[in-house]
Every structure is written in C-alpha cells, then in structure tokens.
Amino acid sequence: MQSKGICMTCRSAICRGALLAAFLLSFADNALAHKASDSYLTLRVVGPEVTGQWDIALRDMDLAVGLDADEDGAITWGEVRNRHAEVAAYAFAHLALAADGNPCPAAVTDHLIDHHSDGAYAVLRFTAHCPRVPASLDVTYRLLFDLDPQHRGLLQLDYAGRVRTAIFSAESPAQSLILAEPNWLRQFAEYLNYGAWHIWTGFDHILFLLSLLLPAVLVRTGVAWQPATGFRATLLDVLKVVTAFTIAHSITVTLVALNVISLPSRLVESAIAVSVVLAALNNIYPLVSERRWILAFAFGLIHGFGFASVLVDLGLPRAALLSALVAFNLGVELGQLSIVALFLPFAWRLRRSWVYRRVTVYGGSAAVATLALAWLIERALDLRLMS
Fold this sequence. Notes:
The chain is α+β, with helices and mostly antiparallel strands. Helix content is 55%, strand content 21%.
C-alpha cells in the first residue's frame, strides 16, 4: 500500500511538472513563431467626413494577397502597383466605419509606400462619407485575424484637435468611439488595459520573467538546486525580481515617451531575445543565483523599449501624458503579478520533486534558451527560421 501511494505521488508530481513545463513552452512556441504584426490606422473626423490613412506591412499584405509575383523574396514597387486593386479590396473588406450605427462607405484616394522601423508598408489614403455628423464612430477591424491571430490594429482618432487611441485584436475587433471630450477615468482605464494586454501578448517578456522565476522556489547548494524551505523568503525574492523589472522598464518607457532616448526596433528586439537566452542559461549554469533582481533590472531597461513601442505607435495624449504613462505602467505591473499569481503556488508545491528540478527547470530552460537563440537569429539577421 505504501509503495502504491509513493508511485501515485510520483505520477502526480510528473504530471504537474509536465504541465508546468508545457505552460512555459507554450509561451516559447508562440514567441518564436514571429514578431506579432501591427497596422496603423489614422482617422480624422471633420463634420460628416472621415479622412484616413492606413499603413499595412508589405509582408502582411503578401501573406494575404500575394504581392511577390516572381517569388524572389523581394517585393518591388512595381509588384505592389500591379496589385493595388487587390490590396484595397482585401483591406476594406476587413474594415467598416459607421456613424451612430449608419454605415460610412470608404473610397481609396491614394496608394503610397512608407518605411517603418520594422520594414516597408503599403499606405492607403481614403475618405469615408457619413450620412450625418457622428456623435460616436463605430469601427470594426478584422484585418489578417484569420491568417495571424496575433495581429493587431493600432488606431489614432483625431476629432476637434483631440486624439483618442484604440487597439483592435482578434478578441476585440469592434469598438464604438465617442467623439466628445474623453473622460479622464475612461482614458486611464484604457491605458491600464493596454499595459496589461501588452504584457500578456508579449511572449518575449513573459518568457524572460518566467525564466527568472523558475529557480525562485529553489536555493543553490554546491552544484545543485535544492528546494527552498521558507515561503516568506521565496515570496520576498519574487517581489524583488518583479519590482526591479517594473522600475527598470518604467524608467525606459518614460524616457522614450518623452522623446529623450530612442533605439532602432531591430536592435531592441534582438537585445530582448538575448535577455531571454541569458536568463534561461543562468538556470542551467548559474552565474547569478541569489540576486536575480539585478538581472531583472538590467534587462528590464531593454524590455522597456519594447513596452514603449506600443505607446509610441498609439500616440500618448499630450493633455494627459502623466496619467497615461502611470496607467500603462500600472497595467504592465498588474499583468506581471497575474503571471506570478498563477505560477508561484504551482511551483512552490512542486519544488521538492525531481521532476521540477530536473525536467522543468533544466529541461524547460534549455528549450527556452534554444528557441530564443533561434528567435535572436531571426531578428538580428531578418530571417524566418520558423513558419
């Protein structure tokens, strides 16, 4: 009976360890698939007329309508020009505007090409006519969601000199935007949501944080990890890591938002991948085992550039700059704490099992480091190793 109980305990530990490793690797797999694509939609409402500009990455439009006619891996202006009609048809089949529920049909007025930090974009300029001056503008955005569930649309809405922002995702494809002066509390809540949403969809940030948290329930003794004995000390260590990461990325986000500092997107994304590799390898060959908050702070400064990119793309409201920054950073912090709340109790319960120490910590960290290394090569060399 005792032997049977021990076996059942072992099987239970193995199952829990496997689940935890799968939880970790699910983020890794998503993170390495590709850098999530964005499009940039700008709308300006003047009376019953809406003028707009829509920037969509050429690589995304190639995926949707096939721009690279000769399949040589390079999309030329001629290839884009030959597909203008298909590009416009596809785009506006996935975007609908309405004034107080009444459709505002749109027509393309110009096709251009522009360059963003992550590559070339097709630019569609258009005009939409509404039946009357709207009190609210209803926007339904479904571009690429059937091909890339991680795609998002970043909207800036300009009305009477006031700018509102919104993010469209597969989970939130339709929004009704009131054109009156924005309510301070609603605006704060929007940026709070953006911060939490960004950490939950930023798989690179999650992988980095989880890599730092994996050994939090263990202590280093000699050349091996051993289970920690006090939950209070473990919780304090975790709070130090999360707080250091938060302070660091908040510093960078603020500096970028205030246009004090800026770095190229490819450099930032590559450095973030490096941070994931090093954090994971540190679990296998520990150079920093007791003060991981130092790693969290150092690399948190780099991750802050990644967090700031979404704010730059959205455009911060100048009239409420401070509250928007505070709300966004607070949202990121709440997103991180929710990850900790899910991970820590599970890891604490499993810490004494060899499955956690050998399979989850060593195996999971090795897998994350390998995948993040491939991700680094993709970003640094602008390659695609995984579909």
